[in-house]
Amino acid sequence: MREEKLGVLCSGRGSNLASIIAAIEDGSIHAEIAVVIADKADAYALERARKKGIPAIAVVRRDYAERDAFERALLEQLYAHGVTLVVLAGFMRILSPLFVHAYTGRILNIHPALLPSFPGAHAHRDALAYGVKVSGCTVHFVDEGTDSGPIILQASVPVLEGDTEETLAARVLEQEHRIFPEAIKLYIEGRLHTDGRQVHILPAGEGGAL
Questions:
Q1: What pLDDT digit, counting tens, does each position of 140-163 carry?
Q2: Active-site residue identified among 111, 124, 140, 177
Q3: pLDDT tens sequence across 7-60
Q4: Which positions fall inside the Formyl transferase N-terminal domain (predicted)?
Q5: Does 14 belong to an annotated binding site?
Q6: The model scores a pTM over 0.90
Q7: Is 197 annotated as a binding-site member?
Q8: Contact 201/191 with Cβ under 8 angstroms?
Q9: Active site includes 140?
Q10: Main-chain dihedrals φ then ψ at residue 34, nearest 5 degrees
Q11: What are phi and psi of 75, to 5 degrees?
């Protein structure tokens, strides 16, 4: 099993970060969170990290004139902390090819919809507006598109009569907290094999190089 150093990128409360920390603490995930980076100085995810003694850094987009400069600053922090796997846990920015190429095949994202349906920043609003009866969440590898990378795991929840964005989001978030740590565990165990758009999950004990 590989020893991975995670770099977790967040924009808000960091509840998915908390689920990853819990999975590391209970031994489900054998890895270290090397750094947590937020694109907002007041993101509560930074406070969560500091309370656990994890390096926590704000790299604020508006401090950089261009996106490339912002992403280079993110990469500098990831490199400085020896990060081997980038985890986007509610990071509300689309990453350019500059960033994606630096960690090709080593960036995981959680999205609050059943991709390829409802990509982008307003998944719950879009799902409700479309009238779907089932929604959910997706963990996927990040490529150069918007929420378009190969899918690793998905979980579904019913859309109930009278649901709002908030009530649907809360139901989906419970599943996010379950499958995101599981996907990270599978990656660390070398059990994810990507063949084009297909991600095959190898049986336990058969993991190897990706």
A1: 999 999 999 999 999 999 999 999
A2: 111
A3: 999 999 999 999 999 999 999 999 999 999 999 999 999 999 999 999 999 999
A4: 5-184
A5: yes
A6: yes
A7: no
A8: yes
A9: no
A10: -80, -30
A11: -65, -40
